[in-house]
Amino acid sequence: VVEIDISKGKVTQKIFVAGAEFLNDLAIGPQGEIYVSDNTQSAIYIVRIGRPSEVFIQSPSLENPNGLLVDGKQLIVASWGYTEEPAGRLLSVDLKTKKIKKLTSKPVGNLDGVEKEKEGSYLVSDWVAGKVFRIGKNGTVEEILSGFNHAADIGYIADDKILIVPQMGENLVTAYKL
Fold it and tell me: pTM to 2 decimals?
């Protein structure tokens, strides 16, 4: 994990994550802790400044975690999955108990990015299929955009309802008013 001073354009700190194989996304917790997904080990690490990193949770039930988002007392996980087609689901992990809950009953795709809308639903990208889905509070899945060449880790400006979709296969970033 690399800390960068954006104003100076310089790396200020590198934090080694022992045992990690394929770190993918990170999310900041309520106390400033950093959660980092390890896709190939089906693990999520926790990094606290000044302390060694450690495994927060590791379980096949994480279905190869990719995108992360802290939402209150839950860590929302967009899983990539490797065992089914389509593979990944949207999951939540309780930050205190570490209990894993499936937010979508059926697999959705090879999920990459996850953002929350003000209404409480989640926006998720499917890197392989090049799609963006809206997942409702009750787990309903609605395809809202498609045709992307590898829709990567999305961004969302909730106040303006603007979705930002990087397309890795095109070296392009596009924005959409939802």
Answer: 0.94
